[in-house]
Amino acid sequence: MRGRGVLALVGLLALFMLSGCARAPGTGLKVGVLVPLTGPFASQGQPMQQSLQLAVEELNRAGGVLGRPVELVFGDSKGTADATRSEALRLIQREKVKVLLGAYLSEETMAAAEVAAENRVLLMVPVAATNELNERVASQYDKYKYVFRTSYNIDQWAGLMGGFIADAGVSSYAFVGTNIRWNKELAQALRNCLAGSGIAPVYEEFYSPKEPALEPIVVALKGKDPGVVVLGDPGQQSINLVKKARDLGLNVPLFSVGGALGDERVARTLPAGGPLYFQAAAWDRTSEEARRFFSAYQEKYGYHPAGYADILSRDALFVLAQAVNKAGSLDVPRLIQTLEQGEFRAACGVYRFDRSHQARWGKGEGLEGMVVEWKDGRGEARWPRM
Amino acid sequence: MEQELQLALSGLLAGFTYALVAVGLTLVFGIMRVVNLSHGAFFALGAFVTYGVVQWGGGSFLALPVVFLLSLLLGMGLERWVLRPVRRHHAVVAIVTLAVAIFMEQVFQLVWGPDYHSIPRELPLVRFMGTAVDLQQIVAALVAVALLLVLFGLLRTKIGMAVRLVAQDAEGAALVGIDVPRVQTVVFGVACGLAAVAGNLTAFAHSIYPAMGRVPLVMSLAVVIFGGLGNVHAALVAGLILGLVASGVSFYVSPEWSYVTMLLVIAVGLLTRPSGLLGRVGRRD
Amino acid sequence: MNRTAVLAVVLVVASLAAVPWLTEDRFLLNLLILANIYTIYVLGWDFLGGLAGHTSGGHALSFGGAAYLAGLLTLAGCPAWSIPALALLGIALVGAGLGWLFRRLEGVYLLLVTLAVAEVAHELVLALGFTTPEGYTIGGEGGLPVAPLLAREAERFYGYLFWTSLFALALTLLVLYWIRCSLPGLKIRALAQDVVVAQTVGLNPDRFRVVTFAAGTAVGGLAGVLYAQYMGVAAPSTLSLELSFVAMTVSIAGGKGTIIGPAVLSYALNVLLGWLWVTPVVRLLLYSSVAILAARWLFGRGREA
To answer: Do residue C112 and residue B221 have CB atoms under 8 angstroms apart?
Structure first.
């Protein structure tokens, strides 16, 4: 009886699964995308998926790649390393994608990099700040030369934010973030960056992403009275923190790394108080391409995106497309060479890669990011100044 | 002193909402000897429905009765059709209630998307003796207390006695003619309703997203175990104490560890005094 | 002892063993390796929670704990060949310790306390980072690297891992099934059914508690060690709550304590869900509905779990 039950369960599941099996074959260049579509990080995977769908439409309208349309095939990385590995292998072996794009989390991206290296397939990394990625490319070039990152890494992120803070004329700052590793690394990098300008942190605190009590942090911050408070958390707690901070009368400028606080629908519900800034990769003012992208996104999905995972995903695809067109073929060694040596203009600016295949972000590098301030529910670009 | 006052106030106010969420969980355990792992998902349901009502144009206080009724009915349906057949096997109950939680999270994601949402506050803050007094949070705490008092009051009535009898001795209750299954269904529904109301009351202070019920579930488990599984009055006291503890650990030790502290409360509590720090009832399973 | 079942298992394992010779398809090999690993993991719960009746809500601790021990040993500079055995031993000791610590807890109380302990471990690994001698940080959300026994670049890496994990699975399956059908298994089941009566025939519940916890944790740990070898990393997702609940769900749905049933179900689920692509949200909706309906059908109306 039990055995029959088990078999019936399996059969039922198989039936359901088969319903999703059919997939129409395409004729274009296939790009495999690894993003978290389910699991605790689905909130970040969705803007990436939506941006890429928009980006591929734009790309194909402009002629696609090597005269052929580009087709995206999505894989769900689910927030785990083994799911990413399995999906990456499925995309390469079953779907026959030529290039991979993704993922989101560090553990996912590292797993994707392993699979890319193994199968000699190019991997474009549009987010994921972990430094390990580029360290591997630099120290084990022959194995990991297939991996290129278009987003800013932690040191660059600190540089972008540090530039704004130094320019703002404050004498002290505070850093509050989650206790995950990259937040702590960002705090360290920011401290190093601002040491040169003589700006020191008066308070640095980390909380668990599942932290239930944020008031104590705000109370402590009020006591220290920093010139600006840097919010290192791109997640849901940052929203709670801003609310608590403004409610408890902490009206110093708040400066977020982006993410949840870059969402205009959230920003509109936040209480009034001091200025609220966030770091973005680009905003409408950055370039005509960026403006068109944001406008198209707003029209299709009903809100202006945060200007991080969304536009960076779009740019990763466009940089890839340009590289393929420039190289004239999908030959991987040619592509790697083209990416290493070339310059690629996209929405955020001009992409050039350094020896560890990291895009160069920073002042005067062609990719400078944008600090945005929320004013009356609308994001206004503030820095670098016009 | 001002700092301590502010911390104590926010700790207490948070504690009232923990208590509201936890009371439902402990009530269900007392009546049915099950731990409902979808309890947090009902908290999230309360917040999402509130968000929906606010989007539509209503206020979050208007949403309260809607939230309660919806969760009451859903909870009753859940108990009747999903939980009751498998009630005896605690591992299966855990799986099933967790599956319900996953199902609900996916529905939230389908309807409202996976991103973080937020609603603005409706009542202002006032300054009183140097501390910021959050009127909306005070109202939330008062509503929570009122609901709890109503609940405690009901437990003293004839209906309440029936409920308490079922908690003490289900077989005996059946023998004296109490419709035990009906009592269990209604109590389960009420518990889910209370969790959802807690979600409604606190929606203005937090971000709203599909998995938002997970931490409240752990917090309410900590409260329930601290106060004693099945002990409804202790849940209120335990909630307040743990609210203060969370605030205290966050300020005096480090905000990194207050979630872990809650988990340790659960572990240590179960090991040392399964009947809770304030409980008298012996452990029965 | 169901001889047909044993024979069937042996035949299936033998035929599977031929796969790496028949194909170089890495997608398929990856799928089967992970299926082997996760099935061993589920068997750990089936032994501890199914056969011995100790419902653990934190089985992921055995899996991720072993993986992280391997990572820590790698960090400490232990020779690669010693790491799997040491990690396994370490997690078995942890299991034994927890079994002794929680010896007075049963049912939902045990479920909650084991859940809490696993969650604490999860939080700890996310929060703690280490600086390597070269000066960069690892740990936290990126996980810890694990020294492999065979280099990933080696030609036969997939084959080696496939056969190792398949052999481990076959061994685990046969040993646990034998235990189940033998005298020790009977004693374990007796204690699970009725502690008081079992004690009257001279069985020591505390001792059995420690042993079964150590064994169940060791089996889960075996899966964890294999995972760490295969993926080259101990990632935080190996300690997640979802993973703990998968063990419980699959074991119960497959026939709690029957060993063979959960193994078959786990393997089938892993292969099917990995092979076929379903829109993610739909997949989770289906999974949870199936779990609910299956629970009702299998356990409703007073049937024994």
So the answer is: yes
Reply yes or no: is the peptide bond before residue C118 cis, omega within 30 of 0. Answer: no
The pLDDT of residue A319: 96
B102 at interface of C, judged by CB pairs closer than 8 A: yes
Please tell me which of the candidates C30, C143, C290 has its beta carbon nearest to residue A12. Answer: C290
Of all residues in chain B, the one with the smallest CA distance to C123 is: B260
Within B204-257, where are the H helices? 214-227, 232-248
Per the CB < 8 A criterion, the answer to whether C32 and C40 are in contact is no
Helices (H), A248-369: 264-267, 288-301, 309-327, 332-341
Q: Is the C-alpha dihedral spanning B73, B79, B80, B83 positive or negative?
A: positive
Position B281 scores a pLDDT of: 43
Q: 């106060």: which residue's tokens?
A: B227
Chain B: nearest CA to A23, how far in angstroms? 23
* SS3 call for A205: strand
Question: For chain B, how many helices (H) and strands (E)?
Answer: 11, 2
Q: Please state which of the ranges A142-146, A375-379, B91-95, C62-66 shows the lowest mean pLDDT.
A: B91-95
Contact flag B109-A42 (C-beta cutoff 8 Å): yes
CATH number (1.10.3470, 3.40.50, 1.10.10, 1.10.60) of B2-272 reads 1.10.3470
Could you report the per-residue pLDDT of B127-174, keeping only the tens digit for each? 777 777 788 888 888 888 888 888 888 888 888 888 888 888 888 888
Of A126, A120, A128, residue with least CA distance to A81? A128
pLDDT of residue B257: 83
- Please give the share of chain B, as a percent, with pLDDT higher than 90: 26
Count of other CB atoms within 10 angstroms of residue A18: 12
Q: Which of C124, C285, C301 sits opposite B106 (nearest CB)?
A: C285
> How far is the alpha carbon of B55 from chain C, nearest alpha carbon, in Å?
24
CATH: 3.40.640.10, 3.40.50.2300, 3.40.50.1240, 3.30.450.40. Which one for A155-280? 3.40.50.2300
* pLDDT tens for each residue of B218-268: 888 888 888 887 788 888 888 898 888 888 888 888 888 888 888 898 888
| pTM of the model as a whole | 0.88
Distance from CA of A242 to the nearest CA of B (A): 10
Q: What is the pLDDT of residue A24?
A: 47
- Chain C 121-140, CB below 8 Å of chain A: which residues? 123, 126-127, 129, 136-140
| pLDDT (0 to 100) of residue A1 | 46
Residue range C10-60, pLDDT digits in tens:
888 888 998 888 888 889 999 999 999 999 999 999 999 988 989 999 999
Backbone region of residue C202 per phi and psi (left: phi > 0; alpha: psi in -120 to 50; beta: other values): left
Domain C3-299 has CATH 1.10.3470: yes
Nearest to C291 among B99, B256, B283 (CB): B99
State residue A199's pLDDT score: 92
* pLDDT lower than 70: segments of chain A: 1-27, 212, 386
ipTM: 0.84
Chain C hits for B225, Cβ within 8 Å: 112
B267 touches chain C (CB under 8 A): yes
| Contact criterion met (CB < 8 Å) for C30 and A86 | yes
The residue among A371, A380, A370, A374 whose CA lies nearest residue A268 is A374
What CATH homologous superfamily does A27-152+302-351 map to? Response regulator (3.40.50.2300)
Rounded to whole angstroms, the maximal C-alpha distance in chain C is 62
Contact B227, B235 (CB under 8 A): yes
- Residue C280 sits at the chain A interface (C-beta within 8 Å): yes
Number of CB atoms found within 10 A of residue A36's CB: 28
> What residues of chain A lie within 8 A of the CB of B219, using their CB?
212
